[in-house]
UniProtKB/TrEMBL annotation:
Binding partners and assembly: Homodimer.
Protein name: Orotidine 5'-phosphate decarboxylase
Organism: Thermosinus carboxydivorans Nor1
Protein's pathway: Pyrimidine metabolism; UMP biosynthesis via de novo pathway; UMP from orotate: step 2/2
Catalysed conversion reaction: orotidine 5'-phosphate + H(+) = UMP + CO2
Active site per UniProt: D61 (for ompdecase activity), K63 (proton donor), K63 (for ompdecase activity), D66 (for ompdecase activity)
Enzyme class at the top of the EC tree: lyase
Keyword entries, A-Z: Decarboxylase, Lyase, Pyrimidine biosynthesis
Orotidine 5'-phosphate decarboxylase domain: residues covered: 6-231
GO biological process entries: 'de novo' pyrimidine nucleobase biosynthetic process; 'de novo' UMP biosynthetic process
Lineage: Bacteria, Bacillati, Bacillota, Negativicutes, Selenomonadales
Presence of keyword Lyase: yes
Keyword S-adenosyl-L-methionine: no
Length: 242
């Protein structure tokens, strides 16, 4: 058994000691890590350079959302860090997404490095139907998620972030050429924490997920390497290879 590149472990911590502890404990079992706002705003590019020096891939989840010119410049700069995936909010609109896609492609070509995949965030899963209505929307959340996923695909995004439940709808609507990155994963028997719409690794893959983002079930486990191995085994046993 070896690292499964569809598994992305979320480094939801805010200091480098903790990062090193997790990455060293997981060793060769995990090849891909998610760095979010908390960690990036705490330690900056240090964590990206560290992960790359360890031979790891980075999913930089900063959820960019601004005017096209600003997001394009920011995405270009982040491309220069050598990350494999970047997120932005699809709500920034098609022009913003297209500008980001172009900037990322240009920067990667200029530096002669692989182009990071651009992943769109549709509707945050923390938004429930009440909040959705309060924001003035008339269509159901699920319809809007699918609509935004299609818009993102048309504007050059490589994939979207989605709950396991949304993954199936998106996969049906957008076909096979879209990455679907899915958080809210809980292996059989794991603590649910504050996640509501959860799925096992195998169920998320069956729903059409291409990547699983997993935090606490691995990083808060008493034996984190064993927890990761269990997930990798479950992914392998599902027999699903997108
Ligand atoms: O610890 P846990 O496995 O719940 O962590 C999941 C990761 O995915 C966290 O970094 C969390 O912020 C992120 N995430 C999520 N739900 C979303 C989007 C992102 O849990 N809808």
């Amino acid at each position: 058994m070896q690292a499964d590149k569809r598994l992305i472990v979320a480094l939801d911590v805010n200091d480098m000691n903790k990062v090193c502890e997790i990455v060293e404990a997981l060793g060769e079992w995990v090849a891909f890590y998610k760095v979010g706002m908390e960690l990036y705003y705490s330690v900056g590019v240090t964590v990206i350079n560290y992960l790359k020096s360890m031979g790891k891939e980075v999913f930089l989840d900063l959820k960019l959302h601004d005017i096209p010119n600003t997001v394009a410049h920011a995405a270009g700069i982040l491309t220069g860090l050598g990350v494999s995936m970047l997120t932005l909010h699809t709500g920034g609109g098609p022009a913003m997404m297209r500008a980001a896609a172009m900037a990322v492609a240009e920067k990667a070509a200029e530096l002669g490095i692989p182009r990071p995949k651009l992943i769109g965030v549709t509707v945050l899963t923390s938004i429930n139907e009440n909040e959705w209505t309060a924001l003035g929307h008339k269509t159901p959340v699920a319809d809007q998620v699918v609509h935004l996923a299609k818009l993102a695909q048309g504007a050059g995004m490589d994939g979207v972030v989605a709950s396991p439940r949304e993954a199936a709808l998106i996969r049906r609507a957008c076909g096979d050429n879209l990455l679907v990155v899915t958080p809210g994963i809980r292996p059989v028997g794991a603590n649910q924490d504050d996640q509501n719409r959860i799925a096992t690794p195998a169920a998320a893959l069956a729903a059409g997920a291409t990547h699983l983002v997993i935090g606490r079930p691995i990083t808060a486990a008493p034996n984190i390497a064993e927890a990761a191995r269990k997930v990798i085994r479950e992914m392998a046993e599902s027999g699903l290879k997108f």
